[in-house]
Design goal:
Layout lengths: L1 E2 L10 E2 L4 E8 L4 E2 L4 E11 L4 E2 L4 E4 L5 E3 L4 E2 L4 E3 L2 E2 L4 E2 L4 E2 L4 E2 L4 E2 L4 E2 L4 E2 L3 E4 L4 E5 L2 H10 L12 E5 L9 E3 L7 E2 L4 E2 L4 E3 L2 E3 L4 E2 L4 E3 L2 E3 L4 E2 L3 E3 L19
Parallel strand pairs: 2-4, 3-5, 4-6, 5-7, 5-8, 6-9, 7-10, 8-11, 9-12, 10-13, 11-14, 12-15, 13-16, 14-17, 15-18, 21-24, 22-25, 23-26, 24-27, 25-28, 26-29, 27-30
Antiparallel strand pairs: 1-20, 3-20, 18-19
């Protein structure tokens, strides 16, 4: 991992030793990349704003088609997943939230724990939302803004620090998951779908547009995943059922 030369008057980002940077990532002054975070920037397609923080075990993936752009002083909770999304300033993203490719959050948004924002969804500024898919339950109040200011020690000003570029090697096997043919059948992957490293798709499998297939997931046989489906921790086998699988295909081949 390497840094370009930083300006003397801007604070350095805090990057944990166990955080993994793959590709060129623009990291803002004073930003925090916590333990276990993995950032994949295909074509320098990830930018994290000044004083923003992505906490432990998060995943960030930016591609040329769907870059990641994070504003200033935005905080992501533990295990958050950001794939090709744009997030404004001073947002608070709950633990385990998932932002899919092409989604956009305005500044000052608050996402509840586990919220999933589907591909292409646009959330207005100052929205408070929860759920899968998300429901906007109200607009942020003065009390919400006060709580977020307290969490930031009342440091809510936006700065013009240029940040720096952090570069890490894109090693073999860390670009995308693997696709395997079986009995002359090759998996079909919809546009905008992201396969995390170590995911494996085998045989007559159709995955809809904008889906997210997590690290270590294995899908085997004649399965069909609807568009925008997130699959994060499971093994799927077409037309088979077993108590060891967290999910399975039903008789029509659709994942349930």
């Amino acid at each position: 991992m390497s840094f370009n030369q930083m300006l003397v008057d801007q604070p350095e980002p805090e990057i944990a030793r166990s955080a993994v940077i793959l590709g060129e990532v623009h990291v803002g002054a004073g930003a925090i990349l916590a333990q276990g975070l993995v950032v994949q920037a295909h074509g320098a397609a990830v930018s994290i704003g000044n004083y923003s923080a992505i906490l432990e075990n998060g995943v960030v993936i930016g591609t040329r088609e769907h870059p990641v752009r994070v504003g200033q002083r935005t905080v992501f909770g533990h295990r958050a997943t950001i794939v090709g999304a744009t997030i404004g300033d001073l947002c608070e993203i709950g633990n385990g939230a998932i932002l899919m490719p092409g989604s956009r959050l305005g500044s000052g948004c608050i996402l509840g724990e586990g919220t999933l924002v589907p591909p292409g969804t646009v959330i207005p500024a100052d929205s408070v939302l929860v759920g899968r898919p998300p429901q906007v339950i109200r607009s942020a109040t003065d009390a919400d803004r006060e709580r977020l200011a307290v969490l930031r020690q009342y440091q809510t000003n936006l700065t013009d620090h240029p940040g720096t570029v952090v570069a890490g090697p894109m090693r073999a096997g860390e670009h995308m998951g693997a696709l395997y043919a079986y009995r002359d059948k090759t998996p079909s992957i919809g546009a905008g779908t992201v396969l995390f490293d170590s995911a494996e798709i085998t045989g007559d499998v159709v995955i809809g547009e904008g889906s997210l297939i997590g690290a270590g997931v294995k899908i085997i046989g004649d399965c069909w995943l609807q568009a925008d489906a997130p699959v994060m921790r499971t093994e799927l086998r077409g037309r088979r059922s077993s108590s060891r699988h967290e999910s399975e295909c039903n008789d029509s081949g659709r994942v349930r």
